[in-house]
Amino acid sequence: MSAEIEMASGEQRSGPALSAERLTKRFGERVAFQDVSFAIGYGEIFGFLGPNGAGKTTTVRTLGTLIAPTSGAATVAGLPLTTENGVRIRQRIAIMPEAPGLYLRLTVAENLECFAGLYALPDPHQRIERALQAVNLAGRANDLCGKLSKGLRQRVSLARALLNDAEVLFLDEPTSGLDPVAAHEVHELIVGLRERGVTIFLTTHRLEEAERLCDRVALLNTTLRAIGRPDELRRQLFPSALVVRTLTPLTEPSHVFDGLPAVKSWRQDASGAYVFTITDASIAAPALTRALVAADADVLSLAESRHSLEDVYLELIDEDVEAGAQ
Amino acid sequence: MSSSATRVRAIYTKEVREYRRNGSIIAGMAIIGVIFVIIPLIEFIALPASTSTALHNGDALAYMLGIPALVPAFVAAYAVVGERQQGTLEPALTTPIRKEELLLGKALAAFVPSLIVSYAVYVLVLACIKLLAQPAVASALIEGSDVLAQLVFTPLLVGWSVWVSIAVSTRSSDVRVAQQFGILGGFPPIFVTNFIAFGAIHPSLGLALILAAALLIFDAIGWWIVTAAFDRERLITGTR
Q1: Three-state SS annotation for B185-208
Q2: Which residue pairs, CB below 8 angstroms and at least 24 apart, start in B225-228?
């Protein structure tokens, strides 16, 4: 899947592509999200994660000028988020909602023609062709959308979001319903868009997708719980650890492991592996290797313990659940 | 073409394409129109020539003006709430389209087929009367002033019905409810035309001008009223 959409505006861009400062949205007494602050640069893929009902979609709708914030401020594609700027902002952004929302009685090309008209694009047919090529649907232009599978509809929806060469692209679950090959193609497309300076605001429940694609992620659970690069979040939440597996248990492990440099503590887990909490892997790992060799241990593996983004996510959400229970 | 005109045309074209793909939408409008006139038409055809003198004193065909007041509700009431239920409203609203442009495109797409159906049913009725009714009855029913009134009032009444139905559609959360209330919205002009048809109100040039002016003003401000009633946030989130 090729990302052949070029930036429409050649204007100089400075400042963040997207920023929020204590942005809050309430529906009466119900808080959708509150005090959300972040700044996202041009060409950044920003993952926006959170459980159902956390306020992710409402945040996207607010930044997309579909609904007005209750308080706080934001800039979108370099423009202050105000009612007066609504049309100008929507000219510079595109939103791919979770549900494709296609006109099912119209063909793929007719759906895109309608949206090319809504954006008042100067060369609609050329753009439609490029967008369809980008999502590998050039051969399905005359198919009725109502007869397409869920995955193909999702790709039409993505093509629709590519029509106006947006500076900021909001993608809500872009690979939902796609098979692994199609999902991989969408990932390539997203990376291609980033390389040309498009900012991607990616809302997803697929944490491995966020981990693979996103430069930074934010975890929202009504309030922003964490923000940063996936590696940073892992380091913040989980101490570095080494895991050693041996063929047979050591007879006196404390003699081998106690006092090793950069090792804060160690324990044996239920599987019999030795888990070391460390401060610096570059010091601890060689020292541990030497100690194991000296002890004549039958070492099966020595590896750095990796926590996934899912671990980070679950840790933070669990904290919220526990706080809520108290 | 300006950006605004391009966006209005995009909505209009989309709607017309949907009508073409689903022919029963327009066919349904035409059938409603025909059902509305079938019984009076049979009565006109069955009238003896001796009644023509009495017919000269009335405006029996004013009844026909009920069609443009009724027919548009079937498509216009769907305009906003239908798209909302289908999940197609939100993607459209993420584009630079203004609510005025969206509503004008929707209104035009309801207006044009309603006008065509209304005129077509009128022409059909005139043709049936001319061909099947007693010549004296036909010449009593079809008078130049009546035809002119139909030509002038039909688009004005279609406009009334379109804006009332779209207004209902922007505030309703169910297509069926919107259609029911949209049809009810066409009743005030139907009452007036029926009073004229059955002689309770005696038409005059002055009355015609007053009614035409009132409808023209309503059609003009209808767009503004409906735009004010269109709450983007409520339509998307279902709150407020």
Answers
A1: HCHHHHHHHHHHHCCCCCCCHHHH
A2: B225/B163, B225/B167, B226/B103, B226/B107, B226/B163, B226/B166, B226/B167, B226/B170, B227/B99, B227/B100, B227/B103
Contact yes or no for A326/A247 (Cβ under 8 A): no
Decide: A246 and A299 in contact? Cβ < 8 Å: yes
Does residue B186 register a pLDDT over 90?
A: no
The pTM assigned to this predicted structure is: 0.84
Is residue A244 classed as helix, strand or coil in its secondary structure?
strand
CB contact (8 A) between residue A66 and residue B236: yes
Q: Do B237 and A58 touch (CB under 8 A)?
A: yes
Distance in angstroms (rounded) separating the CA atoms of residues A128 and A96: 16
| Whether the predicted interface score ipTM is above 0.90 | no
Q: Which two tokens stand for residue A316?
A: 């933070």
> Touching check for A68 and chain B: CB below 8 Å?
yes
**What is the rounded CA–CA span in Å between residue A315 and residue A235?**
13
From CA A131, how far away is CA A113, in angstroms rounded? 11
pLDDT band at A7 (very low <50, low <70, confident <90, very high): very low
* Residue range A28-69, pLDDT digits in tens: 899 999 999 999 999 999 999 988 888 999 999 999 999 999
Give the pLDDT confidence score for residue A317 in this predicted structure: 78
Distance CA A310, CA B172 (A): 42
Give the gap in angstroms from C-alpha A286 to the nearest C-alpha of chain B. 56
pLDDT value at residue A4? 40
Q: Which helix (H) or strand (E) holds A32?
A: strand A30-40
Contact A69, A62 (CB under 8 A): yes
pLDDT of residue A2: 44
Distances in Å between the Cα of B165 and the Cα atoms of B62, B74, B128, B160, B172 are 22, 8, 31, 9, 10
In 3D space, the residue among B96, B88, B106 whose CA is nearest the CA of residue A102 turns out to be B88
What does DSSP say about strands A93-96 and A241-246: parallel, antiparallel, or unpaired?
unpaired
Mean pLDDT of B141-163: 90
Residues of B in contact with A99 (CB under 8 A): 87
